[in-house]
Amino acid sequence: MAFRWLVNAILLGLPMGTTVGVLRGIDIHRASIGQSPLFDGSDSDLIGGGSGSGSSTAADDDITPGDNNITTSQYCQKSLEINPATKGTHYIFNPNQWGWTEGTEGSLCMNISTFNNHTYATNTTAPDFSVTWQYPAGDDTAPVHAYPNIKLSSDNLPVKLSKMKSLTMDIEWSYGIGTTPVAATNITSLTTNLVNANVAVDMFLDSSKSASQNSTKASFEFMVWFAMIGDSAEPIGLQQGSLQTQVLNNVTLSVFFLCIIFRVCPQLTCFLSDLYAGQNDLEQYVLTWLAPVTTEKFSGDIMPLFTAVLEANNATFPTSDDYLGSLQMGSEAFYSNVNVTFSVPAFSVDL
């Protein structure tokens, strides 16, 4: 009897040990690609959503008193949600190499600098980040390899456009040749090296709250381009011409005419943009406000760009009953002959 009991115990123990071994192997694999373990002793949910293949987070109780150091972490995964802890507005980062196939030519890595005390300059200030990438030219029908970005994670989203009073942003960025951030963007140097990319805020709208939070199901994509680099990077509808022009930031009459007539707009004094529109391959209606000159710094309210669209009385445009469900800022990486680095030392959103 004792022998039979011993045999049964061994047989019962085998599948349990095998299961634990398999789960341990899965956890090791998840760690190798930057994903969180299946069992980490925590049952807390991550803030935010999206379609990333993994998540990374830190809890506020990880703060070490008096630790005011900065930690820089690198992420080279195809898609991964990175959710740094903060005492203020939450943001989610993602390398988002959605148009690149693993094992093929090209690469991208995102570097994020976080404050160990989880406290930033203002309540809405995000950690700064940079992205270094290089891809060969892709198919003309799908030229974009990635959209590395920072995404607003807020309880205020989705929000009906009729309820939005302002959408204030502070943005500073640069693009340069090489693997380290540059102080200023040299467009000539970039185009000489066949760099094709943009710098853009990307938002999604829909009459459904849930659909407005999904980048593939939303009816409208609403973009603000601060740079168009290279011949391949152009907004949908560019060839059909601008539908209207807007100047932001409560400019004086003299500055307004300077912007409109001479197409010159001093940075931070005003922001000039032209509206282009058309459908993409997902049959979403895309509205893009494009700055005719590279704009590396912007500080102001972009709500007038929404207002201009709503007041256009165009049946194909969004209405005040639609919801804004998603807001991201980043760079669409088309292709480049050399390594290039996109850097964002300052970003904040106040909705």
TrEMBL record:
Residues 44-70 are annotated as: Disordered. One of its GO terms (biological process) is polysaccharide catabolic process. GO terms for molecular function: cellulase activity. The lineage of its organism: Eukaryota, Fungi, Dikarya, Ascomycota, Pezizomycotina. This is Concanavalin A-like lectin/glucanase domain-containing protein. Pfam families: Glyco_hydro_12. It comes from Calycina marina. It comes from the Eukaryota. Keywords: Carbohydrate metabolism, Glycosidase, Hydrolase, Polysaccharide degradation, Signal. The keyword Hydrolase applies. Belongs to the glycosyl hydrolase 12 (cellulase H) family. PANTHER family: BLR1656 PROTEIN, XYLOGLUCAN-SPECIFIC ENDO-BETA-1,4-GLUCANASE A. Residues 1-21 form the signal peptide.
